[in-house]
């Protein structure tokens, strides 16, 4: 009774017969001595804004500032939505940052938004206006905040800093990222370091309080750049992990201090290679104490589990990718924009996505250790749930599949899901696929195939 092989990470391979298996909208975990496959969390509406085209978000003292195509809104902790006067032109990604300004003992931060395609704006509780200091170049393409200073990247390689807890810019308060002539695509801050991401290098900076420019470049410059402006995350409030980004070599990397490490697999690399660079974006979030990194594009979404160091695929109905994007932490929860509506979403144990079905798939790798001419009988171990599993199998490496058979998990605590006869094996082995639709939760613990030797028949 050999166990069917299931992969550590979703591994579809390049062509039928190559892959080791897949996880779509589910992920493997190891707890103690046991392994499980669990469903991904659902998405529940936090608030309906009535807008569309999510571009960027920021939490400011419990109020979410949200940029959409054609409008900017604030969302209070009680869900009240207020549309600001003025807009931020375009539909590209928007980065937002706040400073630590205090007026008469009250936090009154300046809020700045920058479009990835160029242009800076200042937001208040009621209005959107152009950046007030002309000494900031109009080509500015990102913003972040470190130690009292707004930091701005410019495509030509300059990195500007504002005055302390202000929007004013000294025309001489800049440095130039010049270890290589690769310009700057993004500035992102984590801890005490600001990273200037270029096309082929990352230049780290520390706040040393000098004037007119307050930062000093570190001696170590990682020799790898970022693919595109929105392809980085890990700077969000409460995120206690590395920065993650899609590098210019189209791999996914983790950045800690001055060191980078590749975390993507060949399948993830192929996914990124098939993506339009401008659509690649990275988000981070935490679910039930476990950190995840989402890499999405026009080719789909892959999610990295930082605990298991494994990848799974995520797909939303009607989206071609995961519908959640632009994650922030606000009011003690992770908040996402919705690609398919103007709603803001939160993670949920309700296994739907903003009311839409959340289906999933587990696919084994090929079991090839059968004798010649063998008929196999499947036994699969699931926890009990009010849901139906659709079972199918392939004998040709996944080129073609059997008709699906339905098996209920309503009595899974009494006997396993089973299929009496999977047909004759071939040199390609046997691949099993389990698919489901519905909101009931369950876990998958593994499957075996009995050997029924027909050589004597």
> In order across it, which strands form the biggest sheet?
1-36-41-38-39
| Helical content class | under 10%
- Averaged pLDDT, please? 94
* Class computed from helices, strands and strand pairing: mainly beta
Q: What Rg is obtained from the alpha carbons, in whole angstroms?
A: 25 Å
* CATH-level-2 architecture of the largest domain: 7 Propeller
Query: How many discrete structural domains?
Result: 2
The biggest beta sheet is recorded as: 5 strands, antiparallel
Roughly what fraction of the amino acids lie in strands? over 45%
- CATH-derived topology of the largest domain: Methylamine Dehydrogenase, Chain H
What is the molecular shape?
elongated
Task: Give an overview of the whole structure.
This protein is mostly beta strands and 457 residues long. It has two domains: 22-40 and 360-453, Jelly Rolls (Sandwich); 43-356, YVTN repeat-like/Quinoprotein amine dehydrogenase (Methylamine Dehydrogenase, Chain H, 7 Propeller), CATH 2.130.10. Helices cover 2% and strands 47% of the residues. The strands form eleven sheets. Strands 1-36-41-38-39 form a five-stranded antiparallel sheet, with no helix packed on it. Strands 2-3-42-37-40 form a five-stranded antiparallel sheet, with no helix packed on it. The two termini are 20 Å apart.
């Amino acid at each position: 009774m050999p166990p069917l092989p299931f992969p550590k990470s979703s591994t579809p391979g390049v062509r039928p017969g190559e892959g080791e298996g897949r996880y779509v909208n589910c992920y493997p975990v190891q707890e103690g001595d046991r392994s499980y496959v669990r469903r991904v969390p659902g998405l529940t509406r936090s608030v309906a804004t009535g807008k569309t085209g999510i571009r960027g978000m920021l939490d400011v003292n419990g109020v979410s500032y949200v940029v959409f195509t054609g409008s900017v809104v604030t969302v209070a902790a009680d869900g009240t939505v207020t549309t600001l006067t003025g807009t931020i032109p375009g539909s590209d990604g928007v980065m937002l940052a706040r400073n630590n300004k205090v007026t008469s003992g009250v936090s009154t931060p300046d809020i700045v938004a920058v479009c990835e395609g160029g242009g800076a704006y200042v937001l208040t509780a009621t209005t959107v206006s152009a950046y007030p200091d002309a000494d900031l170049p109009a080509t500015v393409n990102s913003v972040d905040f470190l130690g009292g200073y707004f930091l701005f990247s410019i495509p030509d390689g300059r990195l500007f800093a504002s005055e302390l807890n202000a929007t004013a810019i000294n025309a001489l308060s800049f440095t130039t990222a010049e270890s290589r002539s690769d310009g700057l695509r993004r500035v992102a801050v984590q801890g005490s370091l600001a990273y200037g991401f270029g096309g082929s290098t990352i230049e780290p900076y520390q706040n040393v309080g000098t004037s007119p420019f307050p930062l000093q470049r570190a001696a170590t410059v990682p020799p790898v750049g970022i693919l595109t402006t929105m392809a980085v995350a890990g700077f969000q409030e409460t995120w206690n992990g590395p920065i993650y980004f899609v590098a210019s070599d189209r791999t996914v990397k983790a950045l800690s201090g001055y060191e980078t490490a590749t975390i993507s697999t060949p399948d993830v690399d192929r996914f990124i290679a098939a993506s339009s660079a401008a659509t690649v974006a990275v988000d981070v979030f935490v679910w039930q104490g476990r950190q995840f990194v989402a890499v999405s594009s026009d080719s789909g979404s892959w999610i990295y589990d930082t605990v298991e160091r494994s990848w799974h695929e995520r797909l939303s109905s009607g989206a071609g990718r995961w519908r959640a994007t632009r994650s922030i932490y606000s009011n003690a929860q992770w908040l996402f924009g919705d690609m398919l509506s103007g709603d803001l979403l939160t993670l949920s144990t309700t296994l739907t996505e903003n009311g839409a079905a959340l289906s999933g798939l587990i696919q084994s790798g090929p079991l090839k250790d059968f004798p010649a001419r063998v008929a196999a009988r499947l036994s699969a171990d699931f926890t009990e749930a009010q849901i139906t599993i659709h079972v199918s199998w392939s004998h040709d490496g996944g080129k073609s599949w059997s008709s699906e058979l339905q098996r209920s998990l309503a009595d899974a605590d009494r006997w396993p899901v089973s299929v009496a006869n999977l047909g004759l094996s071939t040199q390609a082995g046997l691949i099993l696929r389990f698919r489901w639709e519905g909101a009931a939760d369950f876990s998958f613990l593994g499957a075996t195939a009995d050997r029924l030797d027909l050589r004597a028949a």
